[in-house]
Amino acid sequence: MSRWEPNALERLQRAAMELYRERGFDETTVAEIAARAGLTERTFFRYFADKREVLFAGAGPLHELLRDKVARAPDSTAPIDAVAAALEASSAVFEERRDFARQRHALIAAHPELQERELIKLASLAATLAEALRRRGVTDPAAILAGEAGIAVFRLAFESWVHDPKRRDFSRHVRESLGALKAVTAGKVTRPAAPSTSRARGASPAGRASGRRSSG
């Protein structure tokens, strides 16, 4: 009979992140993670399939939250707004683990094989959002497009959130990212101002030379 270990999941995740930071992801072994957490390898594999899964476990509750929030949106809500509201509602999930999320993000960015698994996870979230929209009566391709667009908003919001020196809420970054998406689709993208033509002519050596010849 297996012995219950209090807070085993959190202890293993904390130990893994410490070791990944100290030794590097590739050099860290499952045995070392378990030892740092004061647990056995058998306990580790009770929670994770491998050391990579430490970074990707626990997505189930997020899928459920997104599915539920999309379903509860008012009937008049546009698909992309229902998706955005669901993403905003997930803020509490991320805020309570901001430091872990920042470390995780940096680790994934440094390892292509982890980036691949992250893309798979994001595709799964997009599929969950699309399915939730279909249950609201949204047909394809609108459901698929809104789900994929929602994940684009999520990725942009998450990137800005983990690097935000002001530590603003994730929900705020979702709103800003959604606003940027809507601006793009509405053709309202701001372009850099072109340099003044008169100023450029005034600064031109050829222009100055021409001026001197005419005055002479």
Number of helices: 12
Secondary structure class reads mainly alpha
Query: Alpha-carbon distance between the termini?
Result: 103 Å
Share of β-strand residues = under 5%
Low-pLDDT residue intervals, each spanning 5 or more residues: 203-216
- Helix-strand string: HHHHHHHHHHHH
Question: How helix-rich are the residues, as a percent range?
Answer: 55-70%
Q: Based on the structure given, which CATH architecture of the largest domain is correct?
A: Orthogonal Bundle
What would you note in describing this structure?
The protein has 216 residues and is mostly helical. The chain folds into two domains: 8-54, Arc Repressor Mutant, subunit A (Orthogonal Bundle); 59-185, Tetracycline Repressor, domain 2 (Orthogonal Bundle), CATH 1.10.357. It is 70% helix and 0% strand. The chain has twelve helices and no strands. α4 runs parallel beside α8 (112-135), α5 runs parallel beside α9 and α9 (142-162) crosses α10. The longest helix has 24 residues, at 112-135.
What's this entry about, in short?
The chain is mainly alpha-helical and 216 residues long. The chain is 70% helix and 0% strand. The protein has two domains: 8-54, Arc Repressor Mutant, subunit A (Orthogonal Bundle); 59-185, Tetracycline Repressor, domain 2.
